[in-house]
Amino acid sequence: MDGALKALLLAALILLVSAQTSDNYRSLNGLVRKHVDKALKKANQDFGTGYHIAFHSLITTPMTRESILNVNVLLKVTTCKKTSNDAYEHRDECNEQKEKTPVIDCLVCKTNDGNELVDCAKKIDVSNQKHTEIRGKCIDHLTGGSDILTRLSEDNKKQSRCLECV
């Protein structure tokens, strides 16, 4: 009996820890979830031909300050059929990625002119720098003090450096 109780407690602990990771939609705080929903809506419009698109994980730590907004998220096309053309809400039962479909990289950010940008593309295209011009409109966000992180190079171009990023 003692061994069974330990196994049950261990299973419960593993379940609890897995529910707290950044790949669980329900564990996201409300503000981050609001921006993830914008990405889901955009991706369902652009990529969700007949199939539901679901949250996969956060790519980076979200920045949701009033002056800086940067939420970068991975989404996946699931095996679930869409319930309607404009449906994008999270569905717990839709977790399995449809075969031969790309992972979708979406960025929700505040641009240099103060507007909000929602850009979704295939992860491979983002990795191959095909959305650099669009995403370059986003306000740069760096963790830490910008006085240490920004330096002037010899050719007088600003370069951002994160000295203690992990």
From TrEMBL:
Annotated signal sequence range: 1-19
Origin: domain of life: Eukaryota
Keywords: Signal
Protein name, as recorded: Cystatin-like protein
Organism: Ictalurus punctatus (Channel catfish)
